[in-house]
Amino acid sequence: MIYFIGAAGFCLITVCSLCFSIYLYWILQNAVRKGREVPGWMYRIGHAIIGRGGDSYEDITDHSALRELNLLLLGLAAANLLFFLYMRLYKGLNGNAALYSCLKAEFFLILSVRMLWIAVKIGIEIMLCFGKKAGRTLRNYASGNAVFGMIFMSGFFLLLSLMLSGVPERAPELRIEKSRIVIGSTRASELLRAGFRFYEEREESEESEESGEKGAEDEIRKPEDRHFYYDGELAELRYGGNSYGTVCLTPPWGKSAKLKDCIISFYRISSENPRFSEIAVCGRELSDLRWEEIRERPLSDIFSLSPANYREDKWEGNCKLQLQMQPYMLWKRYTIELRFHEDGTAAECSLRAQHTLWE
Q: What is the model's pTM?
């Protein structure tokens, strides 16, 4: 919970900083339109957010201050567009991944635009010194610097937020008997209403024995020696007397919860299960998957996903797709793993969701 609150706090600071930047811009625009000065505290912000060296900013509010700020914002928008097109077209990233790259680079884009603008102003100053308008200098406006300075701070907080929590990703979905299971979101109560039942997971040596059914009011506890992947109890999922693999029932809050309130955080099924051919993950039938296709195509394309922050790993007969690679303090991390037989057909599939609130 502490990690979740910390990550949420950074995101809140980022949003507040950006909103305050917009508010400062509105104050400056409104003051210029009415021919007034901005409040003194806004000038003080402009004087406070400066780089190394002396404070050359003046307490002036006029059309030139607003025009200079608008040029800076226009340059920042152009820098973002160019960077997005570079990541999308040259690097070949999908739209979400290219946008995420822009967000991660936002702080450095703001800094670059600022440094370029300073270089341009220095160049103009040199031209004025040797031109017909010698003695005229360009002003530095504290009012405009207050706005752009807060945008600079917003970019810094955004970078920290993304490093701590990343961005939310689309959760993988299962289709079983016309029912939709969203890993990390679907609750056991939804499956119970759809006619599914949960049974104690059977060991291989107990295949001939009937396992006990778990009721909706049964208590599910997180094990003290928690496994990294399982934040609850494993159970066999059945429908109409047929087994449809194994799920993990995870109490959403605290160390225990009633079964009906638990979240499905993990799913696994083997090709030895007679119902393997009926399972679909993100619209793809597991029985249709072949190692040749996995080897040749990106996993995100195979499962029709456009993740922003992800990683694909492939090794002989195995593959793994992870969505949301930053620490899962605020947003869930999702993993799809597949194992294949020597003949190239799918042997096993597992999906899981991880979140710090469940640990």
A: 0.86
Question: What SS3 class is residue 239?
Answer: strand
At 333-356, the pLDDT tens digits run 999 999 999 999 999 999 999 998
| Residue 294 near residue 314 (C-beta atoms within 8 A) | yes
List strand residue ranges (DSSP E) for 271-330, in order. Answer: 280-281, 284-285, 310-315, 318-323
324: left (phi over 0), alpha (psi -120 to 50) or beta: left
Q: Which residue stretches of the chain are H helix? A: 2-34, 40-48, 63-85, 95-130, 142-165, 188-193, 291-296, 299-302
Query: 52 is written with which tokens?
Result: 């190394």
Distance, in Å, from the CA atom of 333 to the CA atom of 100, rounded to the nearest integer, reads 16
The SS3 of residue 73 is helix
How far apart CA 283 and CA 269 sit, in angstroms, is 16
Q: What is the pLDDT of residues 16-57, one digit of tens each?
A: 999 999 999 999 999 999 989 999 999 999 988 876 666 778
